[in-house]
């Protein structure tokens, strides 16, 4: 019996794609506000097609379970969402009570960020996910970017067709020599923009890698992370197979996922051979 069902004892190539944990949004839908757990199709599709990996959900996973559940996966992608990170997480009151929140998602994802960094699990943040990483590591957000003197309105205009909503919106400058400049093939790129919040104070240990024309930080990396730990304010999941910058972003994420998968499966093999428990599965 192969102790490791997803790879033979001597093969390096696992038979299954790497597994990527995506969080669910908590929404109430329909005339009776029925609770649902939601994941945007384009995020799951970008993991499958762009990173050649398998998206997984752990519905209703709690912060206390994060360490153990991370041992089962090869990466985490924090998706965008119309909801905002609750400002209490960066010691502010809610400025606009009409804007949606998702405290259940916050409780999971903020713990997930810290665990990914501690356990060296590849982490990609997109839009809200980008903001979650900065807040989880001790930074803050502008709750209404367009109300900040000198900053632009980064929201997508209402009523546009999706192709326009997620099409190129503004240029960003990418840090010279950064991974993002490598993925973009230069230090300038056009990106889409669908956000009303944005980074205010950078978290300690987080480095800015991209800026909009108004100076707003649009991409970050977690300094000292031994594995892939990047986040962007824009949406590279949108038609990622048609945009070389977005495609290369997901290819790089996929490479990190496969490195982690090798480590995780070898740890499982060693555990099944020796019986010694592996610390975190990789
Ligand atoms: N609510 C935050 C984050 C915005 C965000 O994630 N937008 C994308 C929502 C739709 C999608 O998932 O594509 C903010 O307003 O800054």
TrEMBL record:
Please list the reactions this protein catalyses.
Answer: 4-(gamma-L-glutamylamino)butanoate + H2O = 4-aminobutanoate + L-glutamate
EC top class named in words: hydrolase
The domain of life is Bacteria
Q: Work out whether the entry's keyword set contains Transferase.
A: yes
What pathway is it annotated to? Amine and polyamine degradation; putrescine degradation; 4-aminobutanoate from putrescine: step 4/4
**Recorded GO CC terms:** cytosol
Q: What does this protein do?
A: Involved in the breakdown of putrescine via hydrolysis of the gamma-glutamyl linkage of gamma-glutamyl-gamma-aminobutyrate.
Q: Per its UniProt record, what PANTHER family does this chain match? A: GLUTAMINE AMIDOTRANSFERASE PB2B2.05-RELATED
Q: Under which name does UniProt file this protein? A: gamma-glutamyl-gamma-aminobutyrate hydrolase
Record organism: Serpentinimonas maccroryi
């Amino acid at each position: 019996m192969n102790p490791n069902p997803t790879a033979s004892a001597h093969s390096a190539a696992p038979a299954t794609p790497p597994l990527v944990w995506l969080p669910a949004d908590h929404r109430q839908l329909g005339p009776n506000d029925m609770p649902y757990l939601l994941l945007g199709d384009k995020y799951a599709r970008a993991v499958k097609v762009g990173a050649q990996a398998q998206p997984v959900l752990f519905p209703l996973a709690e912060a206390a379970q994060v360490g153990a559940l991370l041992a089962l996966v090869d990466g985490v992608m924090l998706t965008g969402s119309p909801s905002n990170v609750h400002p209490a997480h960066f010691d502010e009151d809610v400025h606009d009570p009409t804007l949606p929140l998702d405290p259940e998602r916050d409780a999971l994802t903020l713990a997930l960020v810290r665990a990914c960094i501690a356990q060296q699990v590849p982490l990609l943040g997109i839009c809200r996910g980008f903001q979650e990483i900065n807040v989880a590591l001790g930074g803050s957000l502008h709750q209404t970017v367009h109300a900040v003197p000198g900053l632009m309105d980064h929201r997508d205009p209402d009523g546009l067709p999706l192709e326009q909503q997620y099409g190129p919106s503004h240029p960003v400058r990418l840090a010279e020599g950064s991974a993002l400049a490598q993925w973009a093939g230069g230090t300038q790129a056009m990106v889409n923009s669908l956000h009303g919040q944005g980074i205010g104070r950078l978290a300690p240990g987080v480095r800015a890698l991209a800026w909009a024309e108004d100076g707003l930080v649009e991409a970050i990396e977690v300094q000292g992370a031994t594995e892939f730990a990047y986040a962007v304010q824009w949406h590279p999941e949108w038609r990622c197979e048609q945009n070389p910058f977005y495609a290369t972003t997901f290819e790089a994420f996929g490479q990190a996922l496969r490195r982690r998968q090798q480590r995780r499966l070898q740890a499982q093999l060693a555990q099944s051979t020796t019986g010694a428990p592996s610390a975190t599965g990789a």
